[in-house]
TrEMBL record:
Organism domain of life: Eukaryota
DUF7792 domain boundaries: 6-120
Short name of any one Pfam family annotated for the protein: DUF7792
GO biological process, one term: cell surface receptor signaling pathway
Coiled-coil ranges from the UniProt annotation: 25-52
Keywords, ordered alphabetically: Coiled coil
Segments of this protein annotated with the region Disordered: 304-356
Protein's UniProt name: DUF7792 domain-containing protein
Species of provenance: Sorghum bicolor (Sorghum)
Length: 628
């Protein structure tokens, strides 16, 4: 900004000099006087700009054009000041030069008027705030950019009502075009949006959070927003704001993390994970007080809380009166000043405790009041917040072991299991998808598997129970495939004594829906692969539950992608349990021979590595017992 102020010195000095030349003009005096009037107005505006707090991005561009207009006028008026008859005769000034100079000065006047108006928007009258500021003449070249400048200027300098409307306009621009979103960020639109999230009304905060989420579609833009302090603003809202605004912020977090996974660690460092888990745990687990997050109370909440407080107090008000009396100094004719002073400093028996203990009790009371306020919120808003909190946790956990560990060390797994059982709609689905992302990371990370999904963990058992409930129910809905995926990813966490998992997955191989059969075959392949320590036991269990006959049907008659997944599982079964009588009766060797001849199947790299060995082992063991 100081650099911008310094750059105003030259045009101010040049304008004064050109005004003097206009008075000294020897030719085209009328035209010079017309230019002088415009130059005087321009000089006044430049001096106002030097005293104002300008919106820097457009101000620099406008000052560049103003410099050019002044240079043009200076060159023209200097030629009109030529002294001597010969010089005036041989100086040729086209008549159109004055029109062009006047046009440039008019544009500069309009541009400077615009930048001063938007930069002093907060000081304008309320009636003027309702009017459209309008675009400057320079907007003829790129109107969208200046429309963006206008909205950002209102966000920076406008009143609360105007800033709320500007945030809604920014949302519309960011939603329409990715390029507009990049321009909003490049023109410093994020800082005023973040300030609005902290300071605005609930509807303005919601619009600002929505705008931030929409602007995060470009990964480069996410980096700029992280540097601008978006994490700090989001943390403030997640700690203390209306639940609907917190839900929108949770959605924005999920958008930023989904579009730019590198920002996950920034949210982890700012403790966003724990705050999201706290919202997920509210009214989900009994110990939700551990996760209580302060929230602004609605009018209805305040009324209900007042009623509950009034009903718990003594109607006579004797307690308050006693506390007041005890706190007052004793005034009597026989008392000394010292005794009166000491009496005044000693609280009565019913007075509030002071010191650290008193502060703790006061904070606990405030927390309880905030929790009661949240309990009175609309159930739809509660579900809205939980749905977006679960979605945000899922996107933050994607491919990030540190965040997954942070999530699983809290009560999030227990929350997800309860929401899978009792919630509906987006809350239930987003909880399932969050579990999918955590389980995918656990599949690749042994430390996370051992810490979060050990068989003795109550929360892990609760999650597995709910996954099995959905899979056993086998209703073709949004939850079935995510739950199958989770069980497959957790295949290496199950003990040999866990017999509940294989059967339901095998039954899904006979499902009419191809995507269900595909996911079931892929999940069972993770049980049967050699990376699983209990792969032989799992293969025997798959065969015992009738998996061989279902796989034969899928290999022969399934869609190509299902054929490939089923054949991979067949290869694992043939490799690990080649002497199985059930495999022989299902004619698995014939299936392998047929698949070997199908070029489009055998070209798959996984099958190419498994099929020859599986075929050899089947031929070796089955020929011994005379099945072939």
């Amino acid at each position: 900004m100081d650099d911008l102020k310094a750059s105003l010195a030259r045009p101010i000095q040049l304008a004064e000099q050109v005004i003097k030349w206009a008075d000294e003009a020897q030719t085209f005096r009328q035209e010079c006087q017309d230019l002088k009037a415009k130059l005087e107005r321009l000089s006044t505006l430049l001096r106002q700009a030097a005293r104002a707090d300008l919106y820097e991005r457009p101000a620099r561009r406008i000052l560049e054009d103003t410099d050019k207009a002044l240079d043009k006028a200076a060159a023209l008026l200097e030629r009109c000041c030529g002294h001597g008859f010969v010089r005036r005769v041989f100086t040729i000034i086209p008549a159109g030069s004055f029109k062009k100079a006047s046009y440039l000065l008019d544009n500069s006047l309009g541009d400077l008027t615009w930048i001063l108006r938007v930069s002093n928007y907060a000081a304008s009258d309320e009636d003027e705030e309702d009017d459209h500021i309008g675009l400057p003449p320079i907007a003829q070249n790129e109107p969208i950019l200046f429309l963006i400048w206008e909205q950002i200027a209102v966000l920076q300098y406008g009143g609360l009502e105007a800033r709320a409307d500007a945030a809604a306009s920014v949302v519309s621009l960011a939603r329409d075009n990715d390029r507009y979103g990049r321009l909003i960020i490049e023109e410093d639109g994020v800082p005023p949006l973040l300030r609005l999230i902290k300071e605005g009304r609930a509807d303005a905060q919601e619009s600002a959070a929505l705008a931030i989420g929409l602007l995060g579609r470009d990964p480069d833009c996410v980096d700029l927003m992280i540097l601008a302090g978006v994490c700090t603003s989001f943390v403030k809202i997640l700690k203390d704001a209306p639940m609907k605004v917190q839900g929108m912020v949770a959605w924005a977090v999920s958008e930023l993390a989904a579009n730019h996974p590198k920002c996950q660690d920034a949210f982890l460092q700012h403790n966003v994970i724990r705050l999201l888990v706290s919202h997920l745990a509210f009214e989900t687990v009994q110990e939700h007080s551990k996760y209580a997050v302060a929230s602004k109370m609605s009018i209805h909440s305040v009324v209900m809380d007042k009623k509950s407080n009034d009903s718990s107090q003594d109607p006579s008000g004797g307690g308050d009166q006693a506390a007041t009396t005890a706190a007052k100094p004793t005034v009597g004719g026989g008392g000394t000043g010292a005794s009166s002073s000491m009496t005044a400093t000693v609280p009565g028996p019913s007075a509030r405790p002071v010191g650290l203990a008193g502060m703790k009790m006061h904070n606990a009371s405030m927390s309880a009041t905030s929790s009661r306020g949240r309990e009175y919120e609309d159930p739809e808003i509660k579900a809205y917040l939980k749905a977006h909190a679960a979605r945000a946790l899922g996107t933050l956990a994607t491919g990030n072991p540190a965040i997954c560990k942070n999530i699983t060390e809290s009560r999030a797994l227990l929350c997800f299991s309860i929401l899978l059982e009792k919630a509906t709609g987006d809350v239930q689905y987003n909880s399932a998808m969050a579990l999918v992302e955590i389980c995918r990371v656990a599949e690749q990370n042994a430390d996370l598997r051992r810490s979060a999904f050990k068989p003795t963990s109550p929360s892990a058992r609760a999650v597995v129970d709910q996954l099995l409930r959905v899979v056993e129910k086998a209703d073709y809905d949004d939850l079935l495939i995510p739950c199958i995926t989770c069980l497959g990813c957790l295949s290496r966490t199950f003990r040999a004594t866990e017999t509940r998992v294989i059967g339901p997955l095998v039954r899904l191989l006979d499902e009419r829906e191809a995507d269900v059969s595909l996911e079931a075959a892929a999940a069972l392949a993770k049980f049967a692969c050699m990376d699983n320590y209990l792969h032989v036991d799992h293969c025997k269990s798959i065969i015992a539950h009738g998996g061989a006959k279902h796989l034969v049907q899928l290999v022969y008659f399934g869609e190509q992608v299902v054929q490939t997944a089923a054949l991979v599982l067949v290869c694992y079964l043939a490799h690990n349990v080649p002497d199985s009588e059930d495999l022989a009766q299902a004619e698995i060797l014939t299936v392998l021979d047929w698949a070997w001849k199908q070029g489009y199947i055998s070209q798959d790299p996984v099958i190419e590595s498994l099929l020859p060995e599986a075929k050899i082992r089947m031929e070796l063991y089955q020929s011994r017992v005379g099945y072939y």
